[in-house]
Amino acid sequence: MLGSFLEGLLSGSILAGTPLLYATLGEVMDERAGIVNLGLEGVMLMGAVAGFTTTVRTGNAVAGVFAAALAGALFNLIFGFLVISRQANQLASGLALMFCGVGLSALVGASSIGSRIKGLDEIAIPLLSDLPLVGPILFRYDILVYLAIPISILVWWTLFYTRWGLSLRAVGENPIAAFAAGKNPYRLQYQALFIAGILGGIAGAHLSLALAKTWAEWMTAGRGFVAVALVIFSKWHPLRAIAGALLFGGAISLQLQMQARGVPVSPFLLDMLPYLLSLAVLAIWGGARRHSAPGSLGRVFRGTE
Amino acid sequence: MAEVLKRSGVTIRLGARGWAGLFRLLGLFGLAFLIFAVVLLVFGKNPVKAYVDFFSSTVGSAYGLSEILVKMIPLVLTALAVAVPSRIWLINVGGEGQLYVGALFATWGALTFGTLPIGILLTLIAALGFLGGGLWALISGILRARGWVSETISTLLMNYVAILLVNFFVFGPWKDLESANYPQTAQFVDAATLPAIGGTRVHAGFVFPLAALILFYFVLSRTRWGLEMRAIGGNPEAARRNGIPIDRYIVLLMFIGGGLAGLAGMSEVSAIQGRLRPSLSPGYGFIGFLISWMAGGNPLGILGAALLLATVTAGGDILQMTHGLPGSVVNILNALILFVVLARQGRKGGARC
User: Fold this and answer.
1) ipTM for the complex?
2) To the nearest whole angstrom, how far is the Cα of A131 from the nearest Cα of chain B?
């Protein structure tokens, strides 16, 4: 009884944590470039709906993932146009992007409501998945789960060990200095937003193609905002984001497990867990936060006149 | 536009340049409607027919105009919920949650004290609504004042907690057994219902936003508190050294802002829904943020922007009913209006929000 509860809890944490991890990585990318993106929720929704409708049409969930990545990236570029080219306020632009995503995804997905898909295939790793205990917990997932940690490492390596990543972080810390050093802040920020959009789109695709295997309006239910909180929790670091995503995936999974086992607590109260956990964790982390945020986060670079 | 939407002061002027700005602004809105028409066309809807219905059922009829006013009541309040704390650079993105908690508190009052006479009961549940929304925002205010969590992220997350809290009560302890499968509370008694005006759906709750707007303007421009708030907004460090209690202002302004959103929730349950339902608000709290941002916190600007977005929201209901579009499609139009304003405003002026 306890064993199967733990097994369900752990594998549930990994499953529910995966879209959060992709989304958090996307937001880390945004914020390392000095841009707060509250529109991530909308980007995820566009990814979810693009992935789902493509899968319904083609019957191929992998094609769905690619469509989601593309949709997320293009959608995030709208945000880029506003905050980079037009130097608009980032918070207001982000919320407007979220609204746009909510509406547009509802419009795109309207014809697919109720459609059924097989979703992303579960790939059981040969031999390893037959191991007692750890087998089912660690080695029976869809491809996006397996890729999540390698992609986190890739993002970390790109940000911290490549010339491009160094330039990008320089823009996030101090665009004027980066500009003086011969970098083009605008181009770097656009590139970061494009990649962030890809990651956000994949996050949405995992929700609709692997977790829910269906489409519902506003199915992200605030996960985009939880990801923004997770970025602070992980101190803008892609590898710490893995731990954060697992923790929050755990909160979602705990609630599902308790519901499945008929624990007599209202599901609505249990649903609050991830949000309350975010707040509690941020409150505890609060003091150290300002030391690790990118220096010019949220500020607009207006050139060097 | 700069004249109408000026952020720094609260002066309301509309000179010759202001009129030109107004026309430019209208042109921008036209552009947003045009892009939305293209979106509709792409998805196989007839935009001309959609717009004919949209406008004839909103600005084109007496009923439609009254619907716009009905939607303006919560929108002006949620916009003020953002505008009040924004005077000292606090970003309250939690209007939606504060509205829900306000509605929750008001419902509790209406269900518990149903035997009181109408005047007393309405005053009581309005106060409860204000208190509910205020306390909800107060949490974020305290977290911010202590330097623990930025109010932007905490108010965002608290929205979801508030909506779940309302769901909990409506599906659980407060569920009306007579409404079978509908998750909703019992109908409010007449004494807990804000009276409608002259056979329309416009209700007595319109005094809330009106009074709040006037008070907002008066406090900002004529009182010591307004001056101190401007000082904090201008230079917090200087204000602190001059003995202005910044932390107290943070907590207080969050409370007042949340309270105004709570009042919006109270007027919705009392006058429009007549009971508490999970689908209380089509995102009034979020739209309020966009309104306040567009208006730059200017009282007259808030009225104008609320009028525009209330029209869009009311028109969205029509598109949903007669054109088979999902209800949230109207969010695209809201967002497009913001996009054009953002794209235009961005290059001018200093930091905003």
Assistant:
1) 0.89
2) 40
